[in-house]
Amino acid sequence: KDFDETLQAKMNAAIHEDGDGDITLEEMKKAMQREEIQEAVQKICDDRDAELIERLQPRAHLVLDAASFPNPRLLTHYFSGLSGGIDLALAVRARNDKGFSDWSVPLDGMRTPSTVPENCLPLVLLEATPTTFRCQYRLPFHSGELITSMEF
Question: What are the residues whose beta carbons fall under 8 Å from the beta carbon of 2, sequence distance 6 or more?
């Protein structure tokens, strides 16, 4: 987040360099070509990629005691707390006093059903004048379908 604010400050300085108070497409393009801004954008992308990779890492193995089920020959399990639009693969193995079996053939190619996007994060006021204001916002997790528009 601090790095996002640093990037915003660098962009504001670069865009308002001419002092006219207007933001043109050319000023935006010129600002984006600056090395310090490209480095800041890359850092944000790298951080967000690392966060996404962390979210997608396999979780610790779930261990269920077969003796606790009414019919240990026909087991079912309900997985909860998942997000929409996530690809899944599951495998299972058994254990006894001698050790573990091999993993089953994975059940893969599964995807949790898409749903509405997660809630948007709060808006951040960046600049206000008597006749305008500018705010910053971030797209929420899409939950399986690309976000096609934002509504204010």
Answer: none
Q: What pLDDT sits at residue 38? A: 80
> Considering only CA atoms, which of 9, 48, 46 is closest in space to residue 31?
9
Q: How far apart are CA 48 and CA 19, in angstroms?
A: 33
Strand partners, 99: 96
CA distances from 78 to 46, 56, 75, 81 (A): 34, 20, 10, 10
How far apart CA 51 and CA 45 sit, in angstroms, is 10
pLDDT under 70: residue ranges of the chain: 1-4, 21, 49-61, 72
DSSP 98: T
Q: String of b and e for 137-148 (b: at least 16 CB within 10 Å)? A: eeeeebbbeeee
Q: What is the DSSP string of 10-75?
A: HHHHHHGGGSS----HHHHHHHHTSHHHHHHHHHHHHHHHHHHHHHHSPPPPP---GGGSS-TTS-
Q: What is the pTM (predicted TM-score) of this model? A: 0.44
